[in-house]
Amino acid sequence: MSKQRVTLSVLLVVALLVPGVILAQPAGPQAAAVPAAPTGSTLFVENAGQWPDAARFQVWGSPAGVGTTWLADDAIWIVVAGGTVQVASSEALAGQPANLQPADLQPATLIALKLTFPGANPDVQIQPLNPLTTTVSYFQGNDAAEWHAAVPVYGGVRYAGLYPGVDLLVGQADGFWRLEAEPGATTDQVQIQVEGASVEAVADGVLRLAVDGVPLSLALPQASFAYRASGVSWQGETVTVAAMPSVSAPRLEAPDDNPSDLIYSTYLGGSYSNYGYDIAVDEAGNAYTTGYTSSYNFPTTPGAFDPSRNSYSDAFVAKLNPAGSGLTYATFLGGYGDDIGGGIAVDGMGSAYVTGYTRSDDFPTTSGAFDTGFHGNQDAFVVKLNPAGSALDYGTFLGGAAVGIEAHDRAIVVIAMVKIANVV
């Protein structure tokens, strides 16, 4: 997204916030936090004239964190700072609240995302659902004709006919939003475009975004049909995700579902997001796993290669003993950018081979390795960790994004995806 477009987006959100948010949600650092969407207490306030016509509903709660969501016919706006505003010069405006103008207000740490649906029905109908007994009143200014009392509040809305045979429900299911398709509907027409943030990663149904270095996570919609995020593309600060059909593998039932057959099962992680992407087992029954974590307190062990988190998202490598009762070692792996471990293998000596991708130009490489220079955006990496997990036998960049690794007698095979751009 160009700088000009970012500016226009922010101005539109401020224009929507000004008419009602001061009374409906008091500004300032002492304002109560708006409930986040998944709590089940999300409120959908109808526009009865208290805001510009473009806003159909104001949602108290945001899928990206504490904040406010605005529903329009052609877009969903997510304002992650709670929609708070502050007066630029309170002394100059003292005693004149009725004369407060949009130009006198400044956004306070305002992060705005615009969600649209390319190719969607331009005449989509927004239908309120689940009317609540709650109402909200807006008494602004000294002209009673401009007051709006007992504005209806709902528990959710439906974008009916967003695509042929596909509706979008907001606030009516677990999670913030859900796609529902009629039998026989073509679901691969669904696309979601996000403007106003750069994309860090798309994994496990979550868009990991960043705005001026501030990380955000936005869960993709749940759906009544199986789909996978495909055709993900981004340009500047715009990302488009296409929902492609996904065929789910049949679930294999164990002959006897006996809990005593479970040798061990354990959690592994810290206070924030933790994802395990691959596992390998050596001949002694030790388990080696890799993935990525956003937890500063992910469990590492004394003497491990890297016991401290380096950025918002670091790869990790952990070895569990055969009983699953303790960590032989656990270490972070990465630099100051995002790092994800995608595959792991182990040789007969207990050395772990890990691959994945990194956005860190300071990712740990070793002297004499195949490629010690970062090539920009994201590179694959391959590292060999010694049996104690205390040092790298080698670490190298490898162009592309590696997703798997296999250890053979005398060779390591890395499976990678390579993105080629700017080909003339």
Write the layout of secondary structure elements.
Elements (H helix, E strand, L loop, with lengths): L2 H15 L3 H4 L18 E4 L10 E6 L2 E7 L4 E4 L5 E3 L2 H4 L11 E3 L4 E5 L8 E14 L9 E16 L2 E5 L6 E5 L9 E5 L2 E6 L2 E6 L2 E6 L2 E2 L3 E9 L2 E8 L28 E8 L5 E7 L20 E7 L6 E7 L5 E8 L5 E7 L20 E7 L6 E8 L1 E7 L4 E6 L7
Parallel strand pairs: 11-16
Antiparallel strand pairs: 1-2, 1-9, 2-3, 3-4, 4-7, 5-6, 7-12, 8-9, 9-10, 10-11, 12-18, 13-14, 14-15, 17-18, 19-20, 20-21, 21-22, 23-24, 24-25, 25-26, 27-28
Structure, described:
This protein is mainly β. It contains 3 helices and 28 strands. The protein has helices at 3-17, 21-24, 90-93; strands spanning 43-46, 57-62, 65-71, 76-79, 85-87, 105-107, 112-116, 125-138, 148-163, 166-170, 177-181, 191-195, 198-203, 206-211, 214-219, 222-223, 227-235, 238-245, 274-281, 287-293, 314-320, 327-333, 339-346, 352-358, 379-385, 392-399, 401-407, 412-417. A hairpin with a 2-residue loop joins strand 17 and strand 18 (238-245). The chain is elongated.
